[in-house]
Amino acid sequence: MYATVLTCSSCGAGYPLDDRFACERCFGPLEPGYDTDALRRELTRERIERGPRTLWRYADLLPARPAPGALPVGCTPLIAAPRLAAALGLRDLHVKVEGANPTHSFKDRVVSVASAKAVELGLTALACPSTGNLAGAVAAQAAALGIDA
Fold first, then answer.
1. Residues 149, 140: Cα–Cα separation, whole Å
2. What per-residue confidence (pLDDT) applies to 70?
3. Residue 133: predicted pLDDT
4. What is the pLDDT of residue 131?
5. Interatomic CA distance for residues 8 and 13, integer angstroms
6. Phi-psi group of 85: left, alpha or beta (phi > 0 → left; psi -120 to 50 → alpha; rest → beta)
7. Which stretches of the chain are DSSP H helices?
8. I need a labelling partner for 109 at 20 to 30 A (CA). Which of 27, 63, 66, 96 fits?
C-alpha cells in the first residue's frame, strides 16, 4: 500500500492512516497522501491489469487493504453513448453502468474501501447517516464481512 498519511485539505496538517475522519486543528476533511516516488517506480499498467476484476485491482492506489469476504465491487461495464458524445462535441464517450455493483449503486465503491479500512483497524461495526443507497451499501457489505451495521 502506497498511502502513507492523511492530510487535511484545508490546513495541511498530517496524521497517520487511522480511524479519524477530520482534522483535529480545523475540522477540515482528510485525504490520503501517497509515496509518489515509489508509485512512479513500481506501479505499472500490467500490475494493475493482473489484479482482480473488482475495485481492488487498484489496491495500490487505495488507502486500505482488501477485506477477505467483501462483496465484489467495481469493474462495472462501460457502454457507448454516441448521441451524448455528439451533443458534447466529443468523438467518443462511454458511461459506467454502476447498477452492476452488488447493491446497484455507485455507493458500493466508497463503502468497499471504508469497510476494508474498518476491518483493517479492527473495528467491529459499520454505521452511516443515510436511509438510501449508502445505507443499503453499508448493510450489504457489513453482512458480507460478518460485522454489525
1. 9
2. 96
3. 95
4. 82
5. 5
6. alpha
7. 36-42, 45-49, 82-88, 107-120, 133-145
8. 27
pLDDT value for 21: 87
8 A C-beta contact, residue 56 and residue 74: yes
Q: And the C-alpha cell for 89?
A: 462535441
Q: How far apart are the first and last CA of the chain?
A: 27
Angle between helices 133-145 and 107-120 (to 10 degrees): 40
pLDDT attached to residue 27 = 97
Residues facing 74 on adjacent strands: none
DSSP output for 90-129: -S--EEE-GGGSTTSSTHHHHHHHHHHHHHHTT--B---S
68: which DSSP letter?
Answer: T
Q: At 53, is the secondary structure helix, strand, or coil?
A: coil
Question: HSE (CB half, 13 Å, CA atoms) of 149?
Answer: 20
Domain ranges of the chain: 66-145
| Cell 455507493 sits on residue | 107
| Cell reading at 104 | 446497484
